[in-house]
Structures are given as C-alpha cells and as structure tokens.
Batch of 2 targets.
Target 1
Amino acid sequence: MEHVIDAKTQPRAVDYLSIVLFTVITVVALVAVPAFGYFVGYTWLDWALMVFLYYVSGMGITVGYHRLLSHRSFECRPLVKVGLLIAGGWALENSAYKWCADHVRHHARCDQDEDPYNATRGFWYSHLLWIFYKSRPELNEKYEIQFRKDPLVMWQYRYYVPIVLSGLAVPFVAGYLYNGWMSGLGCFLLAGVARTFLVLNSTFCINSICHIWGDQPHTGADSSRDNWFISLLTFGEGYHNYHHAHQRDYRNGPRWYNFDPSKWFIFFLSVVGMASNLYRVDPDRVRYQA
C-alpha cells in the first residue's frame, strides 16, 4: 500500500525569498510603473515590448513548461526546447524542474492535501499564497525524478537566475539603445516588471479561477473548470476541465473555434518540421468522465 503523507500534520516552511520577490514586483508594478507613466510617459517601444514579452514568456510556460515538459504532449527539436526553457524562465515562475514537478503533483493529487495549489483551501491560497511556502522534499521526490533525467531541464535549473535576469535586461537594453537611460528605465518598468507581474497573475488564475468558476463539460472527478475568458489571458489554458480529463492532449481547447494560441503554435511547429508526435483526442469521441 502506498504511504500517503498527511500534509495537514506536516507544517510547511515559509519561503521568505518568494515573499520578498513577489512583494517587490507587486509594489513596483502597482506604484512605480503608473508613477513613471504619469510623470515621464512610455514610448511605443515600451508598449510593444511589453506585449511581445508577455506573449513570449507566457508561451514559454504554456507550451514549454506545461504541454511539452509536464505532459509530454509533443516532441520538439532541442533548439526549440532551449528557446521554450529560456522563455519560460523569463516568466519568473521557478525553474522548469520545480514548476513541472509541482504541476505533475497537482494532477496526481488534485484537490487533496498534497496538491501544491489545492483549490479547496480557498481562492487566495490557490491563486497566490501557496507560493509562499516551500514544498517538502519527501512530497516532491517521486515527481522530480523524471525531470532529473532531462539534461536541458537541468541546464535551465542550473542557470535559472541568469536566465531570469536576462529577461529583465532585454527591455532595459532595448530602451537604452532607443533613447538613453530614462527610456531604458521606462522599458524595464513596463516590459520587464509590469509584464512579469501580469504573466504571474494570469498563470495564477488557472490555479484559482479555473478551479472555482466555470463549466465542467468533460469531467467531474475534480474541481477543474472550463473558463473561456481565462483562455484569452493565458493562450488557451482556460479550457482547464478538458485538460484535466485529457491531460496529454496538446490542445486545451479541442474544437477549432476554441481560442488556444498554444495549440496553434505547437501545430505550426509540426508543420515546419520543428515538432512531432502531437498527442490528441478526437473531440467527437470525448465522453464525460464522472
């Protein structure tokens, strides 16, 4: 019989680094960013880079961390994988090694005590508060081991901090080259810090909103919900009930009209020969799973 650790009786250590980092990002995004906009103003480059980097870092999470690594929904060339690992690192959501282990555990223990972002503990816990606690090594061990075998995942894990810093340096350098120090600062604030804050919270919405509000057309086995609005913010991840019913499908939105840019990008990669073995479930054969 498998031994299940009682998470309720095992207090988790507070992750002070995560608290400090998120507090700094939040204060800068909500105070410094609008203040700079009011007193100095942002250029077209600042806004363009914010949108572009939101897309790049968000897709690094949805396509790279989530569908490629956590669920093995497709295979891709090493160069594509490295690009996705760098883009995912720019989202500041932890290394792929840690992120994917948490996510696999979420699916294995959804809505149970061992679920890292257990939605039954309330909106704010599943949305945000869970990141302020360290995962106990004995819980993650069996979920991490599969990712230790991947040399590119471990490469990103070793160089995670430089990768994160490069994601913040890119907008500053671009702004500086465009129009000097103040332009660099503005681009750093908007396309660096504010963009990171938005990507973090859009991803958090999948853990919280998509387990509380929405429809359950595919499975009632857990609290997952389909929420089309969240898909607009997360490149298709809002079709979360379908995802929980068919975890390996490279599409979260299975119908052609479902807004799922992540599946379109993966399909594009396959068309140009950069991805293969796309796993899918025929929507006409999908049945509700109790």
Target 2
Amino acid sequence: MEVRREKILEVLKQVKDPELQRDLVSLGMIREVEVLPEGRVKVVVALTTGGCPLKRKIAEDVRQAVLSVPGVSEVEVELAVMTPEERARIFGAKPKKEHLGIRDVRFVLAVASGKGGVGKSTVAVNLAVALQLKGFKAGLMDADLYGPNVPLLMGFSEEERPEVREGKIQPLVRHGVKVMSFAFLAPPGQPFIWRGPLVGKALREMAEVVEWGPLDFLLVDLPPGTGDAPLSVCQVYQPKGALMVTTPQELSVADVRRCAKMFEDLGVPVLGLIENMAYLKVEGQEIPVFGEGGGSKLSRELRVPLLARIPLIPAINQKREPVALEKDSEAQGLFLDLAEKVIKAVFEHEAAKAAS
C-alpha cells in the first residue's frame, strides 16, 4: 500500500505540543516528512527549545501517530531546534530595536523579594545553574547596583571583566550560565552612588549593549524593594513572569506581598513563591529557625503555587560555587525540582495566553 505524505501530515495535525496545546503542524514544528521505500518514514520535528522537558513524549506521540497510517512499517523521528525567527512566529515579534541585546532571549523572568537578606540572589544563581543542567540555555542578570552579589556566588574573582566586541558587552560564562553584573563594571570594592533615575538609565542601556545571544531563560536578579530598578526592568525587559523569594517570618512575607502587588500593577504575572531558609535539618528533624507557614499562607493569599521550600544549607556559606552543582546531593535535587516547576509554570502560562 502506497504511503502518502499528505496522509502523514493529516494525522500529525492530531498531535499537540504538551505545553502550548496546539498541533505540531500549525505550530510549524514539522520541518520535514520523508517517505522512504518499504513503508519507512522519517519525520523531522523542530522543538521550540533544545532543552524541552517533554521532547521524548513529543517524539513518541509523533511516532505512534505516523505508525497508525496504513502501509507505514517503521518511523524515524529526528529532533531539531527552531531558529529565533521560527520561535518569533509562535511567541510574537522580537523586542524593539533599542533592546537588541535581548532580542534572542525567549523567556525573561524576574527574581524578586521586596526585602533584602532572604537569599534571593542565592536562589537565582542556583536556579540558573539548575536550568542549565536541565538542558536549557540560561543567563543571569544581576540588576542590583548597590549590592551585586551574583559574581561572588558564581565564583568570579574581582579582577574578571567582560570582553567588549564592536561596542557590545559579552557576558562572562560560568558553569555554562551567561552572567552579567554591574560589579563587573566598577573597580573592586567601589560602590555605585547613584540616584534612582541613573539606575533606570543604566538598566535600559544594559538591555541594549549586553549581547546575550540565544537564551531560553534570562533570570534578572532584582534588588530589594519596589523602586526604580524593578520598574525599569519590567518596562524594558518585559519579563514573562516573576518568581518571589521569601523566608517564613511575617516581616519578609509582608514585603513580598507589597512586591507582588507592584508586579500586578505592572502587568507581570507572579508565577510562584519560593520559601528560602524554610527550616534547618538536624539529625533528620526539620527545625523552623525563622518560624513556619509564611510561604504557604502567602501562596494561598496570592493564589500562586509555592514552588519550593529551601532549607538552610551550610554549604552555601562554605563554598564559592552554586550548591546545585553538587552531584546527587539533596541541595541539587531541590533546585532541579524547582527548575522543573518553573519550566512547567512558564509553559502553562504561555499556553493559557495562546488559548485566550
């Protein structure tokens, strides 16, 4: 029985992308269908991202659908990755010309707290590493001019500086993650003593001159509070969502509540909460050093998921590298699980937008 390419495309219209809930053909994900002798068929599927967490399911769904066509004896599914132009047709136009540095970034996510000292930068650093370990291209922007801690947490020395090529700043790379921080632009130990308008101007310029290149996720580590820096990031970088970091005590929860309201007013959805320093584990027991229940209470109040409860991890203060790199450790497991939940939250939100 002759196998026709048209019939194969017809059955592939029934196969949907698990996150976007649209068929692969209309999304342009079926790049090639080749009918070979003896009923063999080769299908090339272009994934929206190389680190797609459900790529095996997509490949198997395609294989089973094509096998259902009479006359097909064998199916080979080859996975490729969409170009930025192909992704733009699905997710919308590229950023405006003045923001060329982030034109190939798929998802910008803000990491915020509203309050200092809750371990927000630590969470951002380890989440970025975990996303990279999951197969995604990740970047990390340290948007805190007054307390830029990302370089220290990532293990950079004070002497390391980014390269400038043709007027564009090339982010430094550590553990596979592209990193940019205002700390790289100042002499060691020299503070930025700038008023608010200068902070906003600097962040806008960074969106233009830092050449991030193709990224799946760019995490922007915001400074505490609801001032000029978060406002500029939301206006210029247009994050797809925000991740809120809190500790269990009410003081931190109150500040996060105000910060979440800021994102609501700016039209940035809060995708989830992360409760850091949730407990200290001693001999198998969880001791709530800073109280308990704050994250769960706020999660219910804001109607957003509590994505993770991260304990106090002594290794964070003992090493100048992310604990998410410690192979098979509890800390790595926690951040890999958090990365999975963040990925799911982002894709579900995008799917809901596409369906509306």
